[in-house]
Amino acid sequence: MPREIGLNTLAYMNRAADNKVEQKEILKEIKEMGFPIVEVRREYIPSGKTEMKEIAQRAADLGLKVFYSVPAELFTAGALNGQLGSYFEEAALLNAVQLKLTLGEFRGFTDKLAEELRELLTTYSIHLTIENDQSTDKGSPAVLTGFIAETRKASLDIGLTFDTGNFVYIDCDPFAAAEQMCEAVTYIHIKNVAITDSGIVLSGLESGLVDMRRLLSLFPDSVPASIEYPCGVGDQVTKTISTDYKKIQSW
Fold first, then answer.
1. Which of the listed residues 18, 69, 89, 108 has the most CB atoms within 10 Å of its CB?
2. Cα separation of 200 and 81, whole Å?
3. pTM of this prediction exceeds 0.85
4. Which domains occur in the chain, in start order?
């Protein structure tokens, strides 16, 4: 079965001059391009719960599976993020099947900490996945595989999101990272980067440092992946997304 390819709405971030992405307004276009998954971003939801319900309804009407991306950390100073319950509640309002965070300051599980997290996972039945960020102490392969080992000891079903571009920011070979993390990865962010005079910047699918086709081939086809990079400005966005989607499908 071919890998499911989704679209993170970051792809639309430069479509409008004010960089405001109206997520509920682009769902129909995303579906028409053939995507089965849309990854909704919390920072693009200005109207809160009312808008979340509208997104959920439109996605359901279109038959789009919803993932939820939250720019927040699971742990703060070793404790669960105080807003974690709210994030799960929002994911439920969106009818999302997955919630993505970054790790944060994980210092190991106590029985109490593990039980608090287990209760949320059981109550909401939403898959939690943790993404490698752009820091060595919170997003390196060693840190994340260590965390997954601890979740398994605590019988917590949590996966990893493998961001293909973020490893470059910490001077880590993404191919080596894939070999270390593959067994625990349940989701992939397709994002390429390039090095310029001003530093590391996001790039197009095939114009960056990472051979994306070869990197994706290291993961089982059962692991879904989403395009997560700006795809141009104005009317160019839809054309780039559609072209890149077809290219990835052909790999």
1. 69
2. 29
3. yes
4. 5-250 (3.20.20.150)
